[in-house]
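thought: fold this chain, then report.
action: predict
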Amino acid sequence: MNNRIRFNSPIFKILVIFLTWRFFLLLISLFAIHFIPLGYKDRFLGGGPINYGISPQLFAWANFDGEHYLSISIFGYKSLEQAFFPVYPLLISFFSKPGSMDLITSLVNSTVVGFLISNISFVIALIYLWELIKEDFPQKIAYLTIVLILIFPTSFYFGAVYNESLFLLLSVLSFYSARKGHWPLAGVFGMVASATRVFGIFLLPALLIEAWSQRISFPKILWILLIPLGLGAYMLYLNFTVGDPVAFYSFQTLVGEQHQRGIVTLPQVYFRYIKMLATTSLDNPIFQVVVLEFFVGLTFFILPIYGYFKKIRLSYLVFAMLGFLIPTIQGSFSSLPRYVIVFFPSFLAASLWVNGLPKLFKAMILILSFLILIVETSLFLRGYWVA
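observation:
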């Protein structure tokens, strides 16, 4: 009886779902490494080209931004790396202790630790996300939301040496604590989240709305004001070290030509992408990136709006909508397919929509998303720009 209860528990089911996802990513990685040629042989590869060539099974999960997180964890911040927030690389450095060993060993250990932090954070985030969604919706919606997150075309970032998983965990815990009335914890988790990704600052307006909806007392609201302290501390550090408190934003225009200074309106961005879709050749590798970015740019604008009519909590939707809109003000949806994976309210809205579809259409959407995940994961692991 006890065994049956244990194996039927939500935690066990979520672990099985997670491990199934992780197993398929392993199979995809083995396929990609053996059958897909490298996109670049001299850059963007985790661990550097030589180390990547020796152990692509490990270092492929630290491609692109993963290189920077490893560099920061081992050497500290170097030029232009201030665009990457500190909590995740600090955790890697704390657990891997890179200064106590030679460079190669430090690199291997830091990669393994980063990989473990991401995957452990992700599975814990899924468990608490299930609990959070269950506060308002049936269990099947909670499970479907998790499935949609896992088969999303860029979900592999949750299992890579990136800070997406850690941020998802912190933001979910912040909302979960608020829903349970533990406002000090909500503020602390939000504070750490805002030092993990800039999106963490959007927990401030979101939790203020949540506090208003719960009609909590003023002293409890003060705990929410901890949230900006994480971002503020990093801005102070940047001001002292590089003389620019918003270097995390300023350097974006230097490392990506698709970004530009100032504010670009969302209709302008849509027009830009329609023009690119009309003029980019189908055999150009960048075409699939443009298609994915445009699809995400449309879908994740609509989902919070749809969620409002499906009675998703306003605090959740504000968090998701602000998280979607802010990256677009630089005139591009570049990296948006990765940015949006941490905004669980949009996936909750998607699950409510998918759940209402006929079984055939539901199956088609799930299969199509999973097939695109296979393609995008394979490309990323072999050094092709995805998001």
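thought: worth noting. Residues 2-381 form one domain.
final: tokens above.
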